[in-house]
Design goal:
This protein has helices spanning 10-22, 39-43, 66-74, 84-115, 121-142, 155-164, 178-188, and strands at residues 2-5, 27-30, 54-56, 62-64. By secondary structure, the chain is an alpha+beta fold. The chain has a four-stranded mixed beta sheet with strand order 2-1-3-4, with helices on one face. α1 crosses α6 (155-164), α4 (84-115) packs parallel to α6 (155-164) and α5 crosses α7. It starts with a strand and ends in a 10-residue tail after the last helix. The mean pLDDT is 97.
């Protein structure tokens, strides 16, 4: 398999983390997240949005969108429950991550810590409020549960761990979310865990 990847992208890290935990071999092709020139030539035939991560399977089939890649890789493994409601709950958290979490925390991290080109303060404030709300929702849930779904580690945890564990780079104080902080430690303690910069 070949992963079009960036070492700073949380969306790419999700995929690398699951690949490591599954013990799967793959090659990496690093893609710049700031300089998007050449994306059409590089990814245009592989990924309609020309984003990373993009995973090329051994038979040449391309897969796009980080959470779709997680779902594919986790099928028939311990990281995706077999029970119907639990699977739907995993999807619930994957959608939450992409709709309510990532657009605020990941984008703010990108602007403040990676691209270092901050938008207007009003936009930063709005994104910080959205990120805080997402972290509060997670904290409420995790105050009653060790993991996000079915009291076990799944790709829902991987998806939300990716940007949550670096939320401080976007200016979020995780000490305000104690259940999230405890959950981050549980995720980091999972077998074959790798850091984002591995």
């Amino acid at each position: 398999m070949l992963l079009y990847d960036s070492p700073v992208s949380g969306n790419c890290y999700k995929v690398r983390l699951l690949l490591a935990q599954l013990g799967l071999d793959y090659e990496r092709h690093e893609v710049d997240v700031i300089d998007r020139s050449g994306r059409a030539e590089l990814l245009g035939d592989l990924n309609p949005a020309m984003r990373i991560p993009t995973l090329i399977l051994d038979d040449g089939t391309p897969l796009a969108e980080s959470n779709a890649i997680l779902w594919y890789l986790a099928e028939d493994t311990e990281y995706l429950p077999g029970e119907k409601v639990a699977r739907a709950k995993v999807l619930q958290w994957l959608f939450f991550e992409q709709y309510s979490h990532e657009p605020h925390i990941a984008m703010l991290r990108y602007w403040l810590s990676i691209a270092r080109t901050a938008p207007p303060q009003s936009r930063i404030d709005a994104m910080r409020a959205g990120g805080f709300a997402a972290l509060q929702a997670m904290d409420r849930h995790l105050s009653r549960s060790a993991f996000l779904v079915a009291e076990r580690y799944t790709i829902a945890d991987i998806a939300l761990y990716a940007y949550t564990h670096v939320a401080h780079e976007a200016g979020f104080d995780l000490s305000e979310h104690p259940a999230v902080s405890r959950w981050l430690a549980r995720v980091a303690a999972q077998p074959q865990h790798i850091p984002i910069d591995a």
